[in-house]
Structure formats: structure tokens, C-alpha cells
Specification:
Layout lengths: L15 H20 L2 H29 L7 H26 L8 E4 L5 E6 L3 H6 L4 E6 L9 H7 L7 E6 L7 H11 L3 E6 L8 H7 L1 H5 L3 E4 L3 H8 L6 E5 L2 H8 L3 H10 L7 E5 L5 E4 L6 H16 L11 E5 L5 H13 L11 H11 L3 E4 L10 E7 L6 H4 L6 E7 L4 H15 L5 E5 L2 H7 L1 H9 L4 E4 L4 H6 L3 E3 L15 E3 L7 E7 L17 H13 L6 H9 L2
Parallel strand pairs: 4-5, 4-7, 5-6, 7-8, 9-10, 9-14, 10-13, 12-13, 14-15, 15-18
Antiparallel strand pairs: 1-2, 2-3, 3-18, 11-12, 16-17
Helix pairs in contact: 2-3, 2-7, 2-20, 3-6, 3-20, 12-13, 16-18, 20-21
């Protein structure tokens, strides 16, 4: 039985000759991009926003067909929420930042007792407070640095203008917003024109992206190509390319930088990368969910079980920030009840097409490594996989599920030897920092009563976490979609141990020296958060939010609220 709609037809690969011609055009245009004023750049982005308003439905419809989501389904809604909405917000925030001369106003900057600066970047004003009430976002600045913004624009104002460059952006295949948002960062923050190579998994969105970004394409600042590994290698190795941005896996990153197989291993040992270009990257994570034990009510247990199940099921589990490890206190009185509730929520969530080509093999590898796993949900189509919970996962060093990202609908429950909040926090922070692969994102669930009882030790725990994105009482998908936050690994990974990557993207207020972003939400969010996979109106909400982000206004909030409250 085949229950999923067919994917759109594949797009022919761009010839290597056309790739060369595109790079030559970009190389010739890089000086023109560098010379544009902030106002001229902002105008181009606002032209793209107008086109996105027109093409948003086609964008989301193409995405949902690639992934096998029926029209009108929750998956269809996610293609607005994780696709068009995030891109529209990024375009607007960058346009506003440029209109402020690259120095957009920060709501506040504070100094921690150790001298580290923290910039509040959300909410920026009344509209933010009304649309995401109680949500805050702080960017922690690298120790010893100031909360300065828009370095290239400060330099230009001082008469220091660089030559620009040509960046190849290797687009991600999972979320359609990632490739264009990576391009926007390289253009606006790094002053580089871009060649975007679409990933074969979601290449069919590429023509829509080209339509939306036509002002940049027609001006010569963006080109788009299609194809597989051969096209990608030709582009990354091209002499006109000065930098590369990769969103994908650490394995793919190493093959590009060091080379494949034994050759790559030898190069890595010798410290001789095959490419001498600036590399930035976002490469995933075995993202933990730290569940700090507390005396939760039945309603709180149910809500947070829905929350955790959604962190896995959103986008069929193909998210670099998808929940991978649910970390519980072994002695928590609600431990067994909470695990069962999470399983119940997953079992009630319709299974989806496992649209990534590697998904079936990944699922087989993990389930063979953990034969005591639990499959949940009804699988009626061979293209689908069950939601899968791995049992018997140890918290010890080297455990397979702690060291390998399961790129499909799999996650694990891990117990720490703790029976109260204080002992759990003391064990969970070193566990997350030292035993879990990657530093991209982490989620922390703590009820307000328990947080108050923990006092300063909770603040210290957040300070000690070495993750680029920290979500407190929210999925770190909000860190991604907010765009005010930075998105990328915690600083410090060398090329020969890249883990979650180097550098950041998004960063809507153009902070120069971000260390990590901390997004905090209320313990219980009402109405149902948009990222919950049991939201009953996310398609309408995604549509209206995309249009709202193009021109936010207090007068347009009732329309958003109406869609949200139907969820």
C-alpha cells in the first residue's frame, strides 16, 4: 500500500561548464556587492520578502510533496513553519538591521559576575511580547569580548572596505529554510556573494527559492546549482571559491576537507587538509533533553510528554536539533510514568514517510545495536518507519547512542543516578558536556518551583553548558526559528574533531562575538505551541505567520491569535 503522495520529478544536474560560468559571474560581481550601501542591501531583501509573500504556498507545497505529506496535514503546516516563516523572518530582521546601518538596537546588555556580557535580543518590542509572550532570547558573548555588532558595517563607515569573496553554500536536505538562510548570512554578515548548491533530497524547492530571491540572482549576487557529489566537489575545489559553508554531517564535512577513506584519515592525522579555504559548518548533534525532576502535576506530565514527543516527530525526526536522548533521574518518582506518557504520545502520532535516502539503513543499524527497542505507531506504507525508542542505553563513555546521531525517528531514554533536582543537575551537566556527541543544541525542562529551589545552581548549570543553542522549557527548534538567536556549534571545534561544526548563522541582530544563545519559554505555553505535532491548526497558523512576518503590526495580531487558538 502506497499512502504518500509522489515526490516531484528530479531536477537535472547543472553541467560543470555552467557551474564554472556561474562562479565567474559571481567573482565579477563580488565588488559590486561589497560597494552596496546598507540601504541598497535592505531594499533587495525587502523585494525578496514581497516575492516570498507571492510564492509561499508554492514553496510549502513543493516541500510537502518531497516529504510525502498529504495536502492539509500537519506536515504540510510544518513546511510553512520551518520553511517560509523562518526565511521571511530572517529577511525582515536583516533588512531592519541594515536599515539601522548594521547596528540594530539591542533591548539590553548585562554583565555576569565573571564579566561575561549577555545581550538580550528578544523580545525587541511590544509586537514580540504579544506574539510570543514570556519568551526571551539572550546571546552570551565570548568571554573577554564586548557585545559589538555589524563589524563589516563599522569597518566600512571607517573607510575600511574589503574585497568580498565567493562562498559555496552546500544546502541542507531536511529543512527548506536552511539553504536560503545560510546564503543570507554569508551575504549580509560575511560580505560574500554566494553559489547555492541544492541538496538532491530537496532540490525541487530550488526553483522556488530562485523565484523568491530573483532580486539577488538578477543583480549577480546569487547563483543556484543542482547535482550530486561530483558537482559539489567541483564547486568546493574551484579556484574562484574563497569560502565554503556546509550544513550536513560531520562525515560529509571530513570528506570535503580531508578527502574520502584512507586518504582522508592520513591527511587528518598529518594535519594537511586538501582545501585551503575558510570553512564554516553546522553538522548536527546527539541533542539531549535534560528533564530536571520535580513534583509535576498530571497536567504538567501530559504537556511535557507531548512536548518531548514533538521534538522527535517534527519533520519525521530529520532535524539536527531533534531530541535524541531523553535524560531522566533514575530515582524521580514520575520517571516511569513520564516515559510511558511519551511513548503513548508517539504511538498516537501518525507515522510519516522516511524521505531521507539513508533512513532505512540508519534505522536498521540502530535497532540491531539495541535489540530491546520499542516500535510505536502504525506503519501501513513501506516508505514509512515506526517511531522507535531505544531501551537499555547506558550513560557510560562510548555508548553507541551517545556518540552517533540517529538520522530518523529514533530516540533513547538514558537514566542518571539521581533522585532529586540538585543531584540530577550535578550529574546531567557533565554528562551532556562530556559524553554526548556534538554541541549544537540542548533542551532543558524545569518547572518553576524546582528552578526556584535550585536557586543560583540552576543559573550556573546554564552557564556551564557547552552548547551553541540552549532551549529552556522549549524545543531548541525555537532557537532556530526565532532567527534573533544564533544557530551553530559552541565555539572551539578544530577541523580534525569538527563535531557540530564551526561558526554560526541567523544572528538577526548581527552580534560579532556570540558564544551561545539561550531561549527561555514559560513552563506551560498556551495556546498549543506551533511546533507541537498534535497542533490542530498549524497549516493555517504557518500561512498567516509567514504573511504577518512580512509586515508585523499590532492590528494584524488578532488574525494570528485566531489561528493559534484553534491549535
Amino acid at each position: 500500500m502506497n499512502s504518500f503522495p509522489p515526490s516531484p520529478p528530479a531536477i537535472p544536474a547543472t553541467s560543470l561548464a555552467d557551474c564554472d560560468a556561474k562562479l565567474e559571474r559571481l567573482h565579477a560581481a563580488r565588488g559590486a556587492w561589497v560597494a552596496l550601501s546598507t540601504g541598497e542591501r535592505a531594499a533587495l531583501l525587502r523585494d525578496c520578502m514581497e516575492l516570498l509573500k507571492v510564492h509561499a504556498d508554492a514553496w510549502a507545497d513543493t516541500g510537502r510533496r518531497i516529504k510525502g505529506y498529504p495536502e492539509g496535514s500537519n506536515g504540510h503546516g510544518e513546511e510553512f513553519l520551518g520553511g517560509t516563516l523562518a526565511v521571511m523572518r530572517n529577511l525582515r530582521l536583516f533588512a531592519e538591521a541594515l536599515e539601522a546601518g548594521g547596528q540594530p538596537a539591542l533591548p539590553s546588555v548585562t554583565t555576569r559576575p565573571d564579566g561575561q556580557k549577555v545581550a538580550r535580543v528578544f523580545p525587541q518590542g511590544l509586537i514580540d511580547k504579544l506574539t510570543l509572550g514570556g519568551v526571551t532570547c539572550d546571546i552570551w558573548i565570548e568571554p573577554g569580548k564586548e557585545a559589538s555588532q555589524g563589524r563589516i558595517y563599522r569597518d566600512k563607515a571607517a573607510g575600511k572596505t574589503g574585497e568580498g569573496g565567493v562562498c559555496v553554500v552546500l544546502g541542507a536536505g531536511n529543512q527548506s529554510s536552511i539553504p536560503p538562510m545560510d546564503v543570507l548570512y554569508k551575504l549580509v554578515v560575511d560580505d560574500e556573494v554566494c553559489l547555492l548548491k541544492m541538496n538532491p533530497v530537496n532540490e525541487q524547492v530550488g526553483p522556488v527559492i530562485e523565484e523568491v530571491f530573483a532580486p539577488l540572482v538578477e543583480a549577480g549576487f546569487l547563483e543556484v546549482t543542482y547535482g550530486g557529489i561530483d558537482v559539489g566537489r567541483h564547486l568546493t575545489d574551484h579556484p574562484l571559491v574563497t569560502s565554503i559553508h556546509i550544513t550536513g554531517s560531520a562525515r560529509a564535512h571530513d570528506a570535503i576537507i580531508w578527502g574520502p577513506g584512507a586518504e582522508g584519515e592520513e591527511r587528518k592525522k598529518a594535519g594537511t587538509p586538501r582545501l585551503d579555504k575558510l570553512i564554516t559548518s553546522e553538522l548536527g548533534c546527539v541533542s539531549p533533553v535534560l528533564v530536571i525532576p520535580g513534583d509535576w502535576t498530571p497536567a504538567e506530565l501530559d504537556y511535557q510528554a507531548r512536548h518531548v514527543a514533538s521534538m522527535l516527530a517534527y519533520n519525521c525526526g530529520f532535524n539536527c536539533n531533534g531530541a535524541r536522548l531523553i535524560v531522566l533521574a533514575k530515582g524521580w518518582k514520575h520517571r516511569d510514568a513520564f516515559e510511558q506518557l511519551v511513548k503513548d504520545k508517539l504511538a498516537a502520532t501518525p507515522t510519516r514517510k522516511a524521505y531521507y535516502p539513508t533512513a532505512q539503513a540508519t534505522w536498521k543499524t540502530f535497532t540491531e545495536a539495541y535489540p530491546e527497542h520499542t516500535d510505536l505507531g502504525t506503519v501501513e506504507d513501506p516508505a514509512a518507519l515506526p517511531w522507535t525508542v531505544l531501551e537499555g542505553v547506558s550513560a557510560d563513555d562510548g555508548e553507541y547512542a551517545l556518540s552517533n546521531e540517529p538520522w530518523c525517528g529514533i530516540f533513547s531514554f538514558v537514566d542518571l543516578e539521581a533522585d532529586d533536582a540538585a543531584s540530577y543537575v550535578a550529574a546531567a551537566i557533565p554528562f551532556a558536556n562530556d559524553k554526548c556527541w556534538g554541541t549544537l543544541s540542548i533542551n532543558v525542562l524545569v518547572d518553576p518551583r524546582t528552578e526556584k529551589a535550585l536557586g543560583a545552581s540552576f543559573d550556573q548549570a546554564i552557564a556551564d553548558l557547552r552548547y551553541g543553542g540552549i532551549g529552556i522549557n522549549c524545543w531548541s527548534g525555537l532557537n532556530y526559528g526565532l532567527v534573533n538567536a544564533t544557530w551553530g556549534a559552541f565555539p572551539g571545534h578544530p577541523l580534525d574533531d569538527i563535531q557540530s561544526g564551526q561558526g554560526v548563522v541567523h544572528n538577526g541582530l548581527l552580534l560579532d562575538h556570540p558564544q551561545k544563545s539561550v531561549v527561555r519559554a514559560p513552563w506551560i505555553i498556551k495556546p498549543t505551541p506551533a511546533w507541537f505535532t498534535d497542533h490542530r491548526n498549524n497549516l493555517a497558523l504557518g500561512r498567516v505567520m509567514t504573511q504577518f512576518e512580512a509586515a508585523p503590526s499590532v492590528w494584524r495580531i488578532p488574525g494570528v491569535a485566531m489561528a493559534a487558538f484553534k491549535g
